[in-house]
C-alpha cells in the first residue's frame, strides 16, 4: 500500500485518469444513473479496493476533487472521474475484507483472452493513481462547474477541474473508494473469494 493511500491523499504525480477502470471492477453493484454520468450519493464502506488493467481507451474524461464519507462520517479525499465510453484489454479488482472467519480477498477479473471489457456512463471516486497516459485535447485547471466533456459530471464553482476529449492509459494501477455507472460488458468475468488469494498488484 502506498504512502498516499495510507494517509488518504490523492497522488497526481502521473495522472488521475488512470483510476477510471475502477468502476468496471464493481459492476455487480453499479447502477445506471438517470441523467448520464452523475455521481451517486451514498456512504462508502470504508474499505478501498485495488484495480489494475493492461490498457484503457476512453472517449471523454472529466474530473474534479471531492471528499467521500463513510457511515461514521470519516472523510476520504478523492478524484471524482467520469467517462462516457471506455474499452479495456482486461480488468482486475481486489478488496481485502475482514470476516468472522478471518481476512479474505474478494477478487473480480474479466477480459484478456475472453475479449475486451467495455462500459459507458461511469463515475468513480479514486486515489493513489499510477499509469502512463496519452491525452487528446486536454484542459487542466478548468473551473469544475464548467466541465462539459462528460454529460452530468460537473463540480463546484471556482474549484479545480480537468477534462480531455480522449485518453489512452497503459499499465493502470489504482485504488478507489466507490463506483457507479451503467452499460457494462465484462467478458469472461470471474469472481473469487479466498483467505489466501492474491490481490491485483
Question: Can you walk me through this structure?
Answer:
The chain is mostly beta strands and 201 residues long. The protein is 2% helix and 54% strand. The protein has 1 helix and 9 strands.
For the structure shown, list the relevant keywords.
single chain; 201 residues; mainly beta; nine-stranded antiparallel sheet; 1 helix; 54% strand; disordered N terminus
Concise account of the structure shown:
This protein is mainly β and 201 residues long.
List the helices and strands and how they pair.
Elements: H1 3-6, E1 49-69, E2 75-88, E3 90-99, E4 102-111, E5 117-135, E6 138-143, E7 160-164, E8 167-185, E9 190-194
- The oligomeric state is single chain
The rough form would be described as globular
H/E series, N to C? HEEEEEEEEE
What is the SS-derived class?
Answer: mainly beta
- End-to-end Cα distance: 10 Å
Low-confidence stretches: 2-40
Helical stretch tally: 1
Rounded mean pLDDT is: 78
Report the C-alpha radius of gyration, rounded: 16 Å
Report the helical percentage. under 10%
Strand content: over 45%
Largest sheet: 9 strands, antiparallel
Number of strands: 9
